[in-house]
Amino acid sequence: MSKEKLKKLTTKFQTPKSNHGITLVALIITIVVMLILVGVTLSIALGENGVISTAKEAKEKTEIAAEKEQLQNAVFGTIGNNGEVNLENIVLPEGFTEVEGSVNFASKVIYQGPSGQQYQVDKATGEITEVDGENRIEAIEPDDLKDGYTVTYGDYEYTYSSSSQGWSVAVLDKTKEEYGEIATSIYGKPIISLANTFNGCTNMKVAPEIPKGTTDLYRTFYDCKLLSEAPEMPDNITEMPATFKGCSSLKVAPKIPESVTNMNTTFYYCTSLEIAPEIPNNVTNMSTTFGGCSALIEPPEIPNSVSIMTGTFDGCKLLKVAPTIPNGVTNLSSTFRHCAAIETISEIPNSVINMENTFYGCSSLTTVPEIPNSVTNMTNTFYYCSSLTTVTVIPSSVTNMDRTFQSCIKLQGDIRINA
């Protein structure tokens, strides 16, 4: 075979040269790259921190800043010759409205701007604070409120009670040292109960103002060990059981409103309390009111309305003088137990029936008054009254004298028991 024929034959069977396969691969790669670029572009434009989102946020901030400035100028316009802010005279800029009927405070007013942003304005200083989204309250008619309906605002959760036609309050975080203002009303309904509101807030040092419509302070500041000063008590309060129980740093008690009827364990174990408050004439229950108040030196006067005095001064070891006991008290169980400094006691009224543990551990007591013929139980009445030297006649009404004079080591003479 000639060389020329061989060359033609070889050429015939060679793999054809073509760019078709390479172009397809390149096209696929190009498409993938373009898709990636499109994704990146969309992410930059539409993502959480994208251009559009950033631009929108910047626009909103600009609008809010402009609104805030407008509102601030309106607030400045209310300042009178005395230099004080008076929001009752405010002329709101166009598009602004006062947010009424939602959350109301004693010290601030809420306004809403054209953008929908809400602002709190301090009534005294005129300071403006933006209301964040979590605290924003939408309008609702009072008639639409249902039992158990909750509102979260600031440091608190408010729960509506259809039976009391008002709100109770609970803190959201019990670890804080200080809490914000409590609302006075929500949707036109008052704050009524602060029962257990700050119970267990052991880091709290300053208490907020109590709303004027509040009636119930059951365990409100229970175990607030660092609370050294009590807030002012509103005039409507009726219930104060265990209100300051365990507030071991409290030195001065607040003024008790005339409306209060129940002071059961109100200052129980307030171990730093030195001065007792005046007790109003409507109080009936003083069970363990000052129990464990080991720094209390002088007792308050007990009004005639009081009928329950079980454990009232139990553990007041520095108390030197016992108050006059009202006629009407029936139970003096543990009333002065462990009052080691008491030397004399007042007359025991003829309404008293139970004197169990009444003067248990009163180691400085030297004499006792006449025991009335109404008393039936004298179990441990003078147990460990180690300075007691003489006693009066035991009336015939007494049926139980178990350990009545046990450990009365200085007691002399005969004890006359009218059996």
Helix-and-strand structural type: alpha+beta
In whole angstroms, the N-to-C terminal distance is: 157 Å
Instruction: Provide a count of the helices.
Output: 3
Helix/strand order, N-terminal first: HHHEEEEEEEEEE
Largest sheet: 6 strands, mixed
Overall average residue pLDDT: 88
Shape: elongated
Q: What would you report as the Rg, rounded to the nearest angstrom?
A: 39 Å
| Strand content bin | 5-15%
Which descriptors apply to this entry?
single chain; about 425 residues; four-stranded antiparallel beta sheet; elongated
Task: Describe the protein in words.
The protein is α+β, with helices and mostly antiparallel strands and 419 residues long. The chain is 15% helix and 10% strand. It contains three helices and ten strands; from the N terminus they run αααββββββββββ. The protein has helices spanning 3-13, 20-46, 51-76; strands spanning 97-98, 103-104, 108-112, 118-122, 128-131, 150-153, 156-161, 166-171, 185-186, 189-193. The chain has a six-stranded mixed sheet with strand order 2-9-10-8-7-6, with no helix packed on it. A hairpin with a 2-residue loop joins β9 and β10. The longest helix has 27 residues, at 20-46. The radius of gyration is 39 Å and the shape is elongated.
Question: Care to give the gist of this entry?
Answer:
The protein is an alpha+beta fold and 419 residues long.
Write the layout of secondary structure elements.
Blueprint: H1 3-13, H2 20-46, H3 51-76, E1 97-98, E2 103-104, E3 108-112, E4 118-122, E5 128-131, E6 150-153, E7 156-161, E8 166-171, E9 185-186, E10 189-193
Parallel strand pairs: 8-10
Antiparallel strand pairs: 1-3, 2-9, 3-4, 4-5, 6-7, 7-8, 9-10
